[in-house]
Structures are given as structure tokens and as C-alpha cells.
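Q: How would the C-alpha cells look for this protein?
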Amino acid sequence: MNDGIRHLLGLRELTAEEITEILDTAKSFREVIDRPIKKVPTLQGTTVVNLFFESSTRTRISFELAERRLSADVVNFTVSGSSVSKGETLKDTARNIEAMRTDIVVIRHSSTGAPHLLSRLLKSAVINAGDGINEHPTQALLDMYTMRSKFSTLQGLRVCIVGDIAHSRVARSNIFGLTKMGARVGVCGPRTLIPSYLDQFGVIEFYDIDRAIEWADVLNVLRIQLEREAGGQFPSIREYRLYWGINRQRLEKARKELVIMHPGPINRGVELDGDVADGQTSLILDQVTNGVAVRMAVLYLTGVRKS
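A: Here is the predicted structure in C-alpha cell form.
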């Protein structure tokens, strides 16, 4: 990130050079977390508050590990039992926390734009850990880091994102980031789950999963949000699995090694079969490990350059 960027709100705002800096910095921190002693004093004396208004396991733990391995002072905020449950606004919650002299705020919120609001209200650096259906920038960054580690470059790489594109903040951030880094991006899923605006980003649309598999080098498979099934956006879980589920039989037809990724949690036997998720070409656990290094990089770059 250059000196003019205080926050990480999304990848739509970043340049290819800024994304590259984050990925390069993450490479250094990836080496740190492989050491016997995984802690460095980089953010000693820096206070980070994790404001998670949505339930989360992977992202929250990943951020907390990253913060503690940088030697930051960490405060975790949860809605249950807080003043939010008594009607306090996001603005007042954040300002009260900042009055305690915090330096970085990591926020995950169900409302699109919540991190952007905080960035205008607070002096602290703000990191978006997922907002509504807008963006999830650190997930996309760790996805890109994982792909770059596997293929050495993102330039020209064919990445197909499969599943609920319309409601996925992971998909949006990946599309913004990958296209800026020179990758070719495709999406695949039911027509009802693929938004119409993607053509402006040069995204290729597939509605036949077998064609998408033939085209792609990487499949980044999204969780099917089972709570949305009642909305009638696809007929049933059974039919989704039949037409768009990734299984061993489909991959074997492609006669090539296809890398499999998934942001988690996985609905095994729905969007992705278990033997594929656990197979030799799966990078799903690498994504989890790399997520700590990428979040260390983001915290470092915002922490040392905050105003």
C-alpha cells in the first residue's frame, strides 16, 4: 500500500501495484509462521480491536492469530452481551472503542458499507473483514497469494469462480483483484445467481460446469448459501449438485490437473464432494494457512503507515 492508503476497505480501490505489495509482504510473513517461534515484535504497542457483528470462525481466528503473532494488543468485540444488543449504534460503539485509544479496527458486518462508514468517522485504520454482499478483501488476497504460490504468477491464469456469485462478497473481491493482476476470470452457476454487470469487468460467464472445467486452471468453489434456497433461485439442493456440483467424475473428464479452492465452510456433497476437497490438487488448507500470513501483511502495512 502506498502512503496515501490508511485503510483496507476493498480491492476495488487498490491498484495492481498495491496488491502486489501486500502479496510480497505476505511472503515474508509466511516464512515467519513456519518458524518454531512464530512471533515478531512488529506491532508491539499497537492496539487492534476486532469488531465482529457477524458470526465467524475462520476469519476471526485468522485475524486474531495474525495480530498476536505481530505482538499487537488484541481486543475482541462480540455483539452478544454488548451495548449493541441494547440499541447502541455502530457509530457510537466505534467512537467509544476508539476513545480507549485503539489503533486498528477490523470489522465484519452484515451491512454493506459499514467499514467505509467507520473509515470516515475514526482516526484508527480500518480493515474490512467482510461487509454485506460487497467485499471480503482479505479472503481474495489470500486466494490470490495461494494461486501465485502455486503458479508463480497470476498473469494469464484462468480462474473460474463457481456458485452463488450474486450474493458473494468473496466473488466480488476476487473478480476485482484477479482482473487487476492480469488473470482471466470466469464464473459458473445458475443464471439466477450470476449478476448482469460482470461483463464490464471482462468476466466470462459459464452455465455449464463441464465447459467451465475444460476452460479453467483453477476452480474457486463458493459455499452454496443454504438459507437462500427458499428464495427459489435454483430448484433444489439435489439439482444444484447434479448440474453444478464438483465431483471426481467431472474432473477426470478434463484430463488435466485442476486446482481446487474453497473459502469455507464447505457443504460437502453439495457444491464440492469430500474426495475432491481432500484430494491432491486441493489447496483449501493452504488457503487457511496463507490467510494468517496475508492478514499479518495487511495489519503491518496499515499499522506502520496509519496517520
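The chain has eleven helices and nine strands.

The chain has a mean pLDDT of 91.

Upvote if useful.
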